[in-house]
Amino acid sequence: MSSNTGLERIKKPSTAYGVVYVGAARKQVVEKLAIEVSFMTGKQITTAQFFQYLIDLHGEKAKNDIIKAFEGDRNGKQT
Q1: If you write DSSP's letter for every residue of the chain in order, what string do you get?
Q2: What is the C-alpha separation between 64 and 61, in angstroms, rounded?
Q3: Would the pTM of this model clear 0.85, i.e. be above it?
Q4: pLDDT digits (tens, 9 = 90+) for 3-34
Q5: Do the beta carbons of residue 42 and residue 59 sit within 8 Å?
């Protein structure tokens, strides 16, 4: 019997692909930004890499901001 604690999956990136709907308008914005970054740096940056960068750098702050906004809604306040 294996002593698999699930840590093996954390250490290795998943090979499965996920799909997240962002809508056409937001996708166009991110495509434009990724193209600009690619042009300015001379390195190909995909829209997926751009999204990953945003999540890695700003995900925790976004989470906290959303929680605060919902707490304000729950208490009858507008943020």
Answers
A1: -----SHHHHHS---S-------HHHHHHHHHHHHHHHHHHSS---HHHHHHHHHHHHHHHHHHHHHHHHHHHHTT---
A2: 5
A3: no
A4: 555 545 545 555 667 888 999 999 999 999 99
A5: no
